[in-house]
Amino acid sequence: MYKGTTFTRFLIAEQRKFPGATGEFTSLLTELATAAKIIAHEVNRAGLGNILGAAGRTNVQGEQVQKLDEFANETIIRMVDHTGHLAGMVSEEMEDIFHIQEHHLRGKYLLLFDPLDGSSNIDVSVGVGTIFGIHRKITPGEDATPEDFLQKGRAQLCAGYLLYGSSTMLVYTAGQGVHGFTLDPNVGEFLLSHEQMTIMKRGKTFSVNDGRYFLWDHPIRHYIDDLRGKEGGSPYSSRYIGSLVADFHRNLLKGGIYLYPGDRESPSGKLRLLYEANPLAFIVEQAGGRASSGTEAILDIQPITLHQRTPLFIGSEEDVRMVEAYIKEGGKR
Ligand code: AHM
Ligand code: MG
Question: For the segment 123-153, what is each residue's pLDDT rounded down to a tens digit?
Fold first, then answer.
């Protein structure tokens, strides 16, 4: 495909590779891209309106909800709830499953998303993102059930993210490689800019909140010490934005590892399995990288609850395998 191909045209071409495809998927992703344009517009001018700051409530995770979190959540729901393609949704900002209202048609797909990840960064104009994954409904009946959403990440049909950074990018996979599109603000369309993205087998960068160093277990400290060159050799660079999508995106393009391990305060880490770790894990595997909880591939974890957290090690394959080896050697916590 030539550079500059529209997202919609690209999706239609991909859809043609599957003879039985109905176009529902293409339509769903197109609506998501429209939601992303609306969110990008609001994020880019956030300081001007009355949309910065906290919404005055905490979410199911006990975290402060930002007004833009709510805006992004509502925008995505509004753009996709009526399409007839979805049986239900799960979002970081909603405690329970969002069921498609009676007056809309119900479909065969499930959308799981983090509407605005890294939203504590908005007030200081740092890049934030949207993360999403799509599953097929597996239980009988029209309404989505918890069982539908508690599928392993490996069963995802599609996953993607939006990065609202110095440019707005949409990166997605439907299991046929990873492709990136950049929003041309003058045209108002996502245009193909990064076809068939792959990640280096090994990078030279690590991304972690190392303010938590003394909360980590020994193997993680040992690993990071070694990346810093404690035993000699050339050290890795440290790059941490504190926005998962932005950190992930940089490492996807340049190689490296992002980690949010479990620690003494948060044994399961911070990030949510269903709509943060799983979609990015699908993308990184498609790009030739690896995502792990430290002991198993993220995509092979059997979810138990909608909002469960997981330690996350994601990026270049050899870097992720290396930290897994440190954890294995370090034994049990
Ligand atoms: P959020 O979903 O509430 O925005 O939290 C997730 C974010 C990630 O984007 C980021 O990588 C991480 O939290 C940063 O956490 P910390 O401030 O502990 O470094
Ligand atoms: Mg998040």
Answer: 888 999 999 999 999 999 889 999 999 999 9
Q: Is the pTM of this model over 0.85?
A: yes
CATH of 205-327, one of 3.90.1150.10, 3.90.79.10, 3.30.70.1130, 3.40.190.80: 3.40.190.80
Per-residue model confidence as pLDDT tens digits over 155-175: 999 999 999 999 999 999 999
Nearest to 307 by CA among 58, 155, 97, 72: 97
Which residues on neighbouring strands pair with residue 248, listed in sequence order?
Answer: none
Ligand nearest the Cα of residue 128 is 1
Measured CA to CA, the distance from residue 232 to residue 226 in angstroms comes to 8
Ligand 2 centroid, distance to 99 Cα (angstroms): 21
**CA 257, CA 319: separation in Å to the nearest integer?**
6
Distance 118 CA to ligand 2 centre (A): 6
Topology classification of domain 7-194? Fructose-1,6-Bisphosphatase; Chain A, domain 1 (3.30.540)
- What are φ and ψ of residue 265, in 5° steps? -80, -35
| DSSP assignment string, 267-287 | TT-S-BIIIIIHHHHHHHHHT
Q: Residue 221, Cβ neighbours under 10 Å: how many?
A: 17
Ligand at shortest distance from the CA of 60: 1
